[in-house]
Amino acid sequence: MGARGSLARQLLVWQLVVVSCLLCAVGVLAVTQAGNNFRTTEGRRVLSVAETVAAQSVVGDLENGPFELAAPAETARSFSGVDFVVIADSQRYVLASPYPDQLRSTLDIGDSTVLSGRSWVGELDGSIVAHVPVLDEKGGKVVRMVAAGSKSPGFFAGFLDSPDNALRVLGVALVIGVSGSLLLARRVKNQTLGLEPHEITALVENREALLHGIKEGVVGLDPQHRITLVNDQARALLALPDDAVGRSVEDLDLNERIRDLLTGRATGADQIVLRQGKVLTLNRMPIDVRGAVVTLRDRTDLMTLRDELDASRHATDTLRAQAHEFSNRLHTISGLLELGEYDEVRGYVSRISSAQGEWRAEVGSRVGDPAVAALLIAKASLAAERGVGLRMAPDSELDRVEDALSTDLVTVLGNLVDNALDALGGEQGWIEVGVWQEEDEVRVEVRDSGPGVAPEIAEEVFEHGFTTKAAAHGQRGLGLALIRQACVRRGGSVEVHNSGGAVFTARLPR
User: Fold this and answer.
1) Which whole-number Å values give the CA distances from 379 to 21, 126, 167, 501, in the listed order?
2) Do the beta carbons of residue 90 and residue 117 sit within 8 Å?
3) CA spacing 20 to 30 A to 367: which of 150, 211, 405, 495?
4) Distance in angstroms (rounded) separating the CA atoms of residues 454 and 456
5) Helix, strand, coil percent values for the chain (each to nearest 5)
6) By the 8 A CB rule, do 259 and 269 touch?
7) Where does the chain cross the membrane (predicted)?
8) Phi, psi (5° rounding) for residue 386?
């Protein structure tokens, strides 16, 4: 649901607004019409009642007091249905009234013209009142006055009794309802970009087919980093639960690197992450203030192919280094022969054979796995070309292991030795490799004489994969992340500390 609510909720709110406006208009019109009708009709009626009472001789006889005047006033009130009939003298002193507390008080006549000898009809104290003067026999002097009145009706009183009013109100209601519906329809059409319901349905169906049909993963996020949509490919690549939609990225079981990329804390194109044995490439595209869209691609096959190419390249580099080394030795032997230094040639060849034989013998005696032994022998030539000495820890020992563990050992050892060579940066130094076979695991340790690993990135080089920060410190971030992946996949671990240089220790359960 968007920040402004669902379309159904908006329709409900606007319909309620239209109905409320309609009811208010009906109420205002009803009250106005009822008031006008009451003032017109009731004004005539109370005037007629007042004139009838004023015309009676008993009212005009000044000899009659309050007792004689009460009877005609009450009779007129009862038969006419008005609320009150009051008789007062020319000084507005009340002589007859249906309200006992009003007797012998002064009658309030407002701006009535009755004292000037003319009848008057108007509103007074919330009632429609008629004042009629009673003149003397000569007809020129007001001797008494008669007031008849009815209280104004309550809200909507008399509205339903008038068919004309009902028809007018229904007409107004129809106009307001139609106008409100047209405005609401226009608003909805603007919000749906002019699409009809069947077009919206087709668009949603096409979107779903597109999202779930492509091979790339797509994740939609709102400004609060909650997942709004996710297709099948993204769910599989990130191993998301079924209820991932609507949940925050921070609440999901994702590593820190992936969370940083999904939330935008880490930026950049084609960012590489590792997730459950898969190498993924993430790209995040912000969408104004509505959130972001993240696309994912599985690069596991490409990375596997790259690793195989790297292995081939390393083998080629090793062969090239060996060929270069052999070429140099042959040139040296050739030069000694031309100089006739035959004894020196025999000594030189003996020393070369002895050094190579010693390294092969040492590796062969300590490492029983052929793949690992071949890797160490090959890496020795590569290290020698760079002026780096490669040696084994004195107590190293490894028997032949199963193929899966042998493959992982080659991956871990190869990447650690390459990482150490890169850390030395072409400077002379040494690398020490140790391999120990324990009861339930194989422990690998590679140390070098380089500058070591900055303490603040000791964990980052494993967790974040390839980053600029890691690369700046000479670390092969992705290679180290792959080492950790290989170890963790077997239930092991890898860690690094400094001791005269970087010391990487990997543990791989058997």
Assistant:
1) 86, 110, 101, 20
2) no
3) 495
4) 6
5) 50, 20, 25
6) no
7) 12-31
8) -90, 5
Q: Are 94 and 104 in contact (CB under 8 A)?
A: yes
- Our CA angle for 199, 200, 202, nearest 5°, is 65
| Beta-bridge partners for 109 | none
> What are the residues facing 504 on neighbouring strands?
446, 496
Name all domains of the chain by residue range, CATH numbers in brackets: 7-151 (3.30.450.20), 201-298 (3.30.450.20), 363-509 (3.30.565.10)
- In the block, residue with structure tokens 């990487």: 504
pLDDT in tens, the chain (510 residues): 444 555 556 666 777 777 777 777 766 766 676 667 767 788 888 889 888 988 888 888 888 888 888 888 888 888 888 889 999 998 999 899 888 888 888 988 888 888 888 999 988 888 889 999 988 877 678 889 999 998 876 554 544 445 555 556 666 666 776 777 777 777 777 777 766 666 677 777 666 666 666 778 888 888 888 888 888 888 878 888 888 888 888 888 888 888 888 888 888 887 877 777 677 888 888 887 778 888 888 877 666 666 667 656 666 766 666 666 667 767 777 777 777 777 777 776 666 665 566 777 788 888 888 888 888 887 887 787 788 888 888 889 998 888 888 888 888 888 888 888 888 877 788 999 999 998 889 999 999 988 888 777 666 666 654 443 333 333 344 667 778 877 888 888 888 888 888 899 999 998
From the list 416, 423, 431, the residue with the least C-alpha distance to 384 is 431
Q: How far is CA 419 from CA 22, 71, 393, 477, in A?
A: 78, 123, 18, 9
How far is 477 from 456, CA to CA, in rounded Å? 14
The whole-model pTM stands at 0.45
What is the full DSSP assignment across 142-165?
Answer: EEEEEEEEEEPP-TTTTTTT-HHH
H or E element, residue 103? none
Strands, E, within 50-141: which ranges? 84-89, 94-96, 120-124, 127-135
Report helix, strand or coil for 231: coil
The half-sphere exposure of 181 on its side-chain side, counting CA atoms within 13 A, is 6
Cβ pair 112, 122 in contact under 8 A: yes
Lateral strand order in the sheet of 227-230? 227-230, 217-221, 292-298, 278-286, 271-275
Helix axes 163-191, 7-55, angle to 10 degrees: 160
